[in-house]
């Protein structure tokens, strides 16, 4: 009888090890998926901000803005710049711009609670006609 008890104990221990191994593998896979999503968001942010930096009409909209700070979606926010957000806002992510003067705090007024917010920033300083440095921030989070 003593051997039956040890056998059941060994079976239970092996079952716990198998279940623990499966849970660990599932958690590792989930972490890997999250890393992929984060790198995708960061790549999209950098690409969008690069486009704003290079495109003359987008740069002009940022530089000509007089009332600062200004968030996307607010009245008076540059319309062409607002349209670029459609390229990055998907079923998984949501993003907003905020334009501020250099040295000014540039934080969203309504930051989503309990969400990881990814922020990229670029300084748009001049075009051929205007020198008016602005800080363009792009805030993105998962839905």
Cα distance spanning the termini = 58 Å
Number of strands: 4
What value does the Rg take, in angstroms? 25 Å
What fraction strand? 15-25%
Shape descriptor reads: rod-shaped
Strand order of the largest sheet: 1-2-4-3
The helix content is 40-55%
For the biggest sheet, the summary is: 4 strands, antiparallel
Average pLDDT figure:
86
Low-confidence stretches: none
Give the topology string: H per helix, E per strand: HHEHEEE
What's a quick, concise take on this entry?
The protein has three helices and four strands. With 143 residues, it is an alpha+beta fold.
What does this structure look like?
The chain has helices at 2-54, 56-64, 79-88; strands at residues 70-71, 93-101, 117-126, 131-142. Helix 1 (2-54) packs antiparallel against helix 3 (79-88). The longest helix has 53 residues, at 2-54. The protein is of the alpha+beta class and 143 residues long. A hairpin with a 4-residue loop joins strand 3 (117-126) and strand 4 (131-142). The protein has one domain (2-142).
